[in-house]
């Protein structure tokens, strides 16, 4: 599979953000991508308190996701994108939406681990997702799982996807800038690839709020594509034979002796 990671800096104008997403879709399609991964919160990003997000949240049949779906269908390009999803029962969700080549929504993932760290409290404005069945999509021999940004800091999030059969992990993010944050980002993305002998495809927002540097990492932890700081699209080939070769040489998944068990609410 030829996969693309698109990065840009979303702002507070949802229409402008949609236009940026459509441009990245066009660039990815022109480059022969078979799947495009876009950042967390592509619909709206701000330095305002998280309580501001309820006012701009949209349902999944609202104009932002409908617009992305139409652009994906026009290019026959499956796409995974992050949005702020309206929640009639409470605070909105930070949601990933998978759209197929016909523009249909095929899966969603609501962020489980909220970014209550580094002096920020995402939970002030976002509801945590429930521990539902893992997000896993099939593309031939590739089984693609996904989680969002801060979930990266919890190794069990990736391992749960692997246990569900994933061998590729998508990571839409808005990894906030700060001292040491870019180094932590690349270290953790590579670690999730190495410990799970899986591809990891990250799509991060760019500055000024986020670090950019979307990377695609192979099952041995080798960075095979890197986007740097500027908006744009990078491509990589995901090869099932590479997965098989790495897992035969490093059978850490077969050798492990622990199981991930979801923690229930107390």
Give the SSE map:
Layout: E1 2-7, H1 14-30, E2 35-37, H2 63-75, E3 79-85, E4 93-99, E5 105-110, E6 136-139, E7 142-146, H3 155-163, E8 168-173, H4 181-196, E9 199-204, E10 215-217, E11 223-226, E12 232-237, H5 240-249, H6 252-255
Parallel strand pairs: 1-2, 2-3, 7-8, 8-9
Antiparallel strand pairs: 1-12, 3-4, 4-5, 6-7, 9-10, 10-11
Description:
The chain has 266 residues and is α/β, with parallel strands linked by helices. The chain is 26% helix and 24% strand. It has six helices and twelve strands. The protein has helices at 14-30, 63-75, 155-163, 181-196, 240-249, 252-255; strands at residues 2-7, 35-37, 79-85, 93-99, 105-110, 136-139, 142-146, 168-173, 199-204, 215-217, 223-226, 232-237. The strands form two sheets. It has a six-stranded mixed beta sheet. Strands 6-7-8-9-10-11 form a six-stranded mixed beta sheet, covered by helices on one side. A hairpin with a 2-residue loop joins strand 6 and strand 7. Helix 1 runs parallel beside helix 2 (63-75). The longest helix is centred in the N-terminal third of the chain and has 17 residues, at 14-30. The relative contact order is 0.16.
């Amino acid at each position: 599979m030829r996969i693309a990671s698109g990065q840009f800096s979303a702002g507070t104008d949802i229409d402008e953000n949609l236009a940026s997403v459509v441009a990245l879709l066009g660039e990815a399609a022109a480059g022969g991508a078979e799947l495009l991964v876009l950042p967390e919160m592509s619909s709206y990003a701000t330095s305002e308190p998280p309580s501001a997000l309820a006012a701009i949240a949209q349902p999944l049949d609202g104009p932002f996701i409908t617009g992305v779906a139409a652009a994906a269908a026009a290019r026959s390009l499956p796409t995974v994108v992050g949005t702020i999803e309206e929640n009639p029962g409470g605070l909105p969700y930070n949601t990933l939406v998978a759209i197929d080549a016909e523009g249909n929504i095929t899966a969603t993932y609501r962020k489980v681990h909220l970014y209550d760290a580094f002096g920020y409290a995402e939970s002030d404005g976002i509801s945590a997702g429930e521990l539902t069945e893992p997000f896993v999509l099939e593309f031939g021999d590739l089984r693609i799982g996904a989680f969002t940004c801060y979930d990266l800091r919890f190794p069990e999030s990736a391992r749960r996807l692997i246990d569900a059969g994933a061998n590729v992990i998508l990571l839409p993010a808005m990894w906030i800038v700060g001292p040491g944050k870019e180094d932590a980002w690349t270290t953790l993305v590579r670690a999730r690839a190495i410990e799970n002998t899986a591809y990891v495809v990250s799509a991060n927002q760019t500055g000024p709020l986020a670090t950019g540097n979307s990377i695609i990492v192979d099952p041995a932890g080798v960075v095979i594509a890197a986007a740097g700081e500027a908006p744009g699209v990078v491509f990589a080939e995901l090869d099932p034979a590479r997965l098989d070769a790495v897992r035969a040489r490093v059978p850490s998944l077969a050798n492990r002796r622990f199981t991930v068990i979801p923690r229930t609410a107390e």
